[in-house]
Amino acid sequence: MSTLTVAWNTSAALYKPTVNASGADARLRKQLTDAKRERRQAASSAQSLAVTALARVLEECANPGWDGYDALPISVKAARRAEAFLDALPSSLTSPHVVPEPDGEIAVDWDFGPSLQLSISVGESGPLHFAGVIGEEYGQRRVRHGTEPFEGPVAGDLLRYIHELHERAEAASQRRAA
Prior knowledge:
Layout: E1 5-7, E2 18-20, H1 26-42, H2 45-60, H3 76-88, E3 97-100, E4 106-111, E5 116-122, E6 128-137, E7 140-148, H4 156-177
Antiparallel strand pairs: 1-2, 3-4, 4-5, 5-6, 6-7
């Protein structure tokens, strides 16, 4: 019987897992290492920027009171889950801001102006909570909020809102450039 373990380094190098295998599993270790390297090389620069910002947030906000008040520390578990969320996003998206929240969760935010904003809270477990303004129609701001499960892929209304936000931001940018 063979055993494969994946150990996570909990330092700022959040996204550098190490794989330990023995005996016949050496080939599997090489395949996992090669696949991880290929995935990181294929990742968009936006995803790389966001993961780097996430590692910085984890390092800077790991202690209670990191905000000078009573903020809860950002846990490695929440950061891993936020990394999984970032990795699950389409690579064509612009890089989101990664922001620590005082309740110990991590916000993934896009802000393209007063009527084009979306914030998604990622915690250690449970659904993702989101709120934003996805443009205007007929002089009314299109406010959207809710929760979506997250078990790997980003799906449902949340993915639709993320795409719509980016499409509207791109269209606004093209109008300004014309």
